[in-house]
Amino acid sequence: MYGFNVTIDATMEEAESKVRDALATEGFGVLTEIDVQKVMKAKLDIDRTGYKILGACNPNLAHEAIEAEPDIGLLLPCNVLLRQEDGGKVNIGFMDPIAVLGMVDNPKIAEVAPMVQAKLKNVAASL
């Protein structure tokens, strides 16, 4: 599997705020944000439920990964998906760094990936 999920009772705005706070607690910042719902409406005139991708990065761990493997940026940042569900729930999905970074044949990356995964699992558990 390439990710893990948690579902919470919240609006998209509440869920995003909780996710951002939990990421910050684990040393992550949000570098990128893609509001797919707005893009689909603007570009294709398609109405869809909330769907937002946050690109999270822990600077210390990213630095370690970049030092070990300069092209690792092709696999960064760690994506966090907020997907609105029926009934006032939001599904929050986290990219599994072990699955994604496992594509890299570098033992130093293999050491960093579990640290990133543990931090993201802490974020999920705190929600």
Structure write-up:
InterPro entries: DUF302 (IPR005180), TT1751-like_sf (IPR035923), UCP021774 (IPR016796). This is DUF302 domain-containing protein. It holds the Pfam family DUF302. The structure is a single chain. The chain is α+β, with helices and mostly antiparallel strands. The chain has one domain (about 5-125): 2-Layer Sandwich (TATA-Binding Protein). It has helices spanning about 10-25, 35-45, 60-70, 95-100, 105-125, and strands spanning about 5-10, 30-35, 50-55, 80-85, 90-95. The protein has a five-stranded antiparallel sheet. The chain starts with a strand and ends with a helix.
**Coarse morphology:** globular
Ranges where pLDDT stays below 50 over 5 or more residues in a row are: none
Quick one: CATH class? Answer: Alpha Beta
- CATH fold title: TATA-Binding Protein
Q: Major sheet: size, sense and barrel closure? A: 5 strands, antiparallel
Number of DSSP E strands: 5
Measured by DSSP, the beta-strand proportion falls in: 25-35%
Please report the distance between the alpha carbons of the first and last residues.
21 Å
Q: Quickly give the structural class.
A: alpha+beta
Mean pLDDT: 97
What is the overall number of helices? 5
InterPro entries: DUF302, TT1751-like_sf, UCP021774
Protein name: DUF302 domain-containing protein
Pfam families: DUF302
Domain DUF302: 34-97
